[in-house]
Amino acid sequence: MTYVVDEKCIKCKLMDCVEVCPVDCFYEGENMLVIHPDECIDCGVCEPECPIEAIHPDTEENMEKWAEINRVYSEKWPNIKEKKEPPADSKDWENVENKFENYFSEKAG
User: Fold this and answer.
1) Strand (E) or helix (H) holding 73
2) Is 24 left (phi over 0), alpha (psi -120 to 50) or beta?
3) Would you say domain 3-86 falls under CATH 3.40.640.10?
4) How far apart are alpha carbons 8 and 15 in whole angstroms?
């Protein structure tokens, strides 16, 4: 098992998770974070730290897509080790539906 970030993170990017990760397995895209599945030690400390509940075990239902997205983009995007300020409008994006289809960016952060 590993943990994955889902579309709730898109355009929110709150980064509380980065601050607590003991192995620095988060990677930063332009508008979301992902977890490198081979680096994650499955400790779970990041999951409760996410205020928008965007982090889940990959064993949860419907997480296959997100496990693959996390794997692919953690190989492309830069590692992030320190919490940064979230986007100024992050609160406006917390409950938006279909963020992956409409707003996901493949660009690095």
Assistant:
1) helix 64-74
2) left
3) no
4) 12
Confirm whether pTM is higher than 0.85: yes
Whose CA is closest to 10, among 106, 108, 93?
Answer: 93
Give SS3 for 15: coil
Tokens 């709150």 correspond to 14
Please name which of 1, 83, 73 lies closest in space to residue 42, comparing C-alpha atoms: 1
Per-residue pLDDT of the chain (109 residues; tens, 9 = 90+): 899 999 999 999 999 999 999 999 999 999 999 999 999 999 999 999 999 999 999 999 999 999 999 999 999 999 999 999 999 999 999 999 999 999 999 999 8
